[in-house]
Amino acid sequence: MAQSAPLFGQVTVIGLGLIGGSLAAALRNGGLAGRLVAGSRSARTLERGLAMGLVDAAYQDLAEAVRGADLVFVAVPVSAMADTFAAIAPALGRHTIITDGGSVKGPVIEAARQHLGVHYARFVPGHPIAGKERSGVEAADAALYQRHRIILTPTEATDPAATAKVRQLWTAVGAEVLDMRPAEHDRVLAETSHLPHLLAFALVDTLSRQGDSTDIFRYAAGGFRDFTRIASSDPVMWHDIFIENRDAVLAAADEFAAGLARFRAAVANGDSEALLGTMTRANTARARFLAMNARTSYTHAQGATDEQLMKADNQAGQARNPVFHLTPGGRLNGQIRVAGDKSISHRSIMLGALAEGVTEIEGFLEGEDALATLEAFRDMGVVIEGPHAGRVRVHGVGLHGLKAPSRTLYMGNSGTSMRLLMGLLAGQSFASELTGDASLTSRPMERVAQPLRQMGAAIGTTGDGTPPVSIRGGRPLEGIHFTMPVASAQVKSALLLAGLYAHGRTSVTEPAPTRDHTERMLAGFGYDVQRDGATVTITGGGGLTACNLEVPADISSAAFFLVGASIAPGSELLLPHVGINPTRTGIIDILRLMGADIQLENERDSGGEPVADLRVRSAPLKGITIPQELVPLAIDEFPAIFIAAACAEGETILHGAEELRVKESDRIQAMADGLVTLGAEVETYPDGIRIRGIAEGAAFTQGEIESHDDHRIAMSFAIAALRASGPITIHNCANVATSFPGFAELAAGAGLGLTVSG
Ligand SMILES: O=C(O)C1=C[C@@H](OP(=O)(O)O)[C@@H](O)[C@H](O)C1
Ligand SMILES: C=C(OP(=O)(O)O)C(=O)O
């Protein structure tokens, strides 16, 4: 850590175990304290601390230790807090800030209030969530808090300046600081840490009391060992925690007992639907909660080992994030079946859930975005089997059968999930809240919220109009006629889904054609949808009937290969069963205008959606001015199109695409930055870009690219390597899994020099 001016004059650490010792070590390393002092009842600990160079002075008399301190960190067991506060209070200065590391906050705050007297206003309660597998001063580790979370739980009595100072302290040693109310902290810890320990202790104890317990333990397999590992934790420490956090632990235990009773009843009654519902939800829930905490991708959390999960969770978003390494040149050949269509996959779950009967889906996209939708419906009580190799069975609950979710619905990175669900949830009788990852929580949601309010919905967003989105529910909706200011299929779809619940007719007029999967699929589920030019209308009060669906391959995923094969001489690829809905084929039109050689073979209908096998051969490309009417029809494909433009003769100019600035990243800026890094000549406009291309040979230099956590940016620059003069490295590629899991393997199989690390 770099040396900086000391943040504090004297810091005193009371209790020099792993937690206290590690803070001392980190402050020492960073030069953050002018003087470091330790206080401990144990002479041996103090000797070790001095010998290790952690502190400059050490006292068994705690009052002596805090004399002259600017900041005191109390890191003793929770049951010893009251005595410690009483011992130090008389020696604290008028400005001394006191903070602690106790794992239960309510009782520590109460002890501080009783014993710190006037100093209570400068007491900032805290809880570092850091590894505790080793203990004692010998385990002190200057790096312990780096990228770990510290929860601060200031009370109304806490001086905000003191809180700010403690926040500065933790940030300076590399931690991420979160604020919580004390009661919330104790409840959350009771649920996520104390209850599991209670269950493990209770299970092992219960089994060990049975007559044949020797046999039980002899035959105990991995599951038993995994589940009960934490029953080996220190009984004295856990005794203190259960006693100190009594109320929250009891509430969590009661909640669990009710869940156990439900499960028991389902077994007793042979209730397959309840059993499947509970277990399919549980299957993915853990990975999802951890992903949600880390505000990271969900399939990553799902594929990770326990250790990685906990690390990702502790390290606040630092989940392992793959890096793409590309060798330059090469060509693409063969046949590639790209991932299932994302837009159709989302809607297959939504409409399947609201239908009467069981909907069977094939070709479902097992990408993060579609899975976020799937999980949201599980959270609302819908039994969904799968996905297994693209097959999903949705047990529809009917238009009015959804149940209130017990917690915030996590939409990960998916704008489609959030916006469509806003419409659907506005029509429900219950309240709900939607949130997402760092990218999604910065995207605009008022474009949907405003017209829904006109229909009568009660919806809140943040001051910036971004998520979290809260929906009051239980409000009667009235059909409206809405003319969309932006061409957005998500806005249109949200209003149509709300329209299912509205009184009368809901109609939406679009300024330019956008993807019409919602309209087609509603009709496929038996709902009457009227289309008249740019206006689509539905009347509330009908019903949906389950059906079977085959999701075609996603033309947005095929786009990377259409561009890759076009720009790499000697390429020829066949992309079977790709959706060629005319509201999605802008990419084909644009590439053809540039001179690409793309053939549609075997055109057919698949469940109401046109599909074809796409054959693409390399061809010399030329720059064009992209026709305005094609912009909404190729909206997600522009990152890939920009790569084609950089490999075309002359200039390509795009206008009218300001929407690109509010996708998973600002795609105009993210692509321009990457293109410039790779030596291309570009100029950006508020609504577009100009790119000068190089028709032959290397169009790109080597370079390091930032994906900005945007799947389409990552995949576009991967394809660029086909025409680069040196290696390209792309950082933060986890989000490729949102729309195209398996991209790297498929692309490498077809000839792209792509390997993945991290
Ligand atoms: O409705 C859909 O499935 C989508 C609509 C488009 O968004 P907008 O409606 O914001 O243009 C598109 O970018 C997105 O990937 C999927
Ligand atoms: C914009 C996209 O998706 P969404 O809006 O669903 O996040 C996309 O996939 O490119």
TrEMBL record:
Location of the protein in the cell: Cytoplasm
InterPro entries: 6-PGluconate_DH-like_C_sf, Enolpyruvate_Tfrase_dom, Enolpyruvate_Tfrase_sf, EPSP_synthase, EPSP_synthase_CS, NAD(P)-bd_dom_sf, PDH_C, PDH_N
Pfam families: EPSP_synthase, PDH_C, PDH_N
Gene field: aroA
Domain Prephenate/arogenate dehydrogenase: 9-297
Catalytic activity: 3-phosphoshikimate + phosphoenolpyruvate = 5-O-(1-carboxyvinyl)-3-phosphoshikimate + phosphate
Binding of 3-phosphoshikimate, residues: 342-343, 347, 488, 490, 636, 663
Enzyme superclass (EC): transferase
Annotated source species: Alcanivorax quisquiliarum
Physiological role: Catalyzes the transfer of the enolpyruvyl moiety of phosphoenolpyruvate (PEP) to the 5-hydroxyl of shikimate-3-phosphate (S3P) to produce enolpyruvyl shikimate-3-phosphate and inorganic phosphate.
SUPFAM superfamilies, per the entry: 6-phosphogluconate dehydrogenase C-terminal domain-like (SSF48179), EPT/RTPC-like (SSF55205), NAD(P)-binding Rossmann-fold domains (SSF51735)
Residues annotated for phosphoenolpyruvate binding in this entry: 342, 415, 443, 490, 667, 712
Protein name, UniProt field: 3-phosphoshikimate 1-carboxyvinyltransferase
Family: Belongs to the EPSP synthase family.
Keywords: Amino-acid biosynthesis, Aromatic amino acid biosynthesis, Cytoplasm, Oxidoreductase, Transferase
Pathway(s) where this gene product acts: Metabolic intermediate biosynthesis; chorismate biosynthesis; chorismate from D-erythrose 4-phosphate and phosphoenolpyruvate: step 6/7
Active site, UniProt feature: 636 (proton acceptor)
Gene Ontology MF terms: 3-phosphoshikimate 1-carboxyvinyltransferase activity; prephenate dehydrogenase (NAD+) activity
Assembly and binders: Monomer.
HAMAP family: EPSP_synth
Enzyme Commission code: 2.5.1.19
PROSITE patterns assigned to the protein according to its UniProt record, in alphabetical order: EPSP_SYNTHASE_1, EPSP_SYNTHASE_2, PDH_ADH
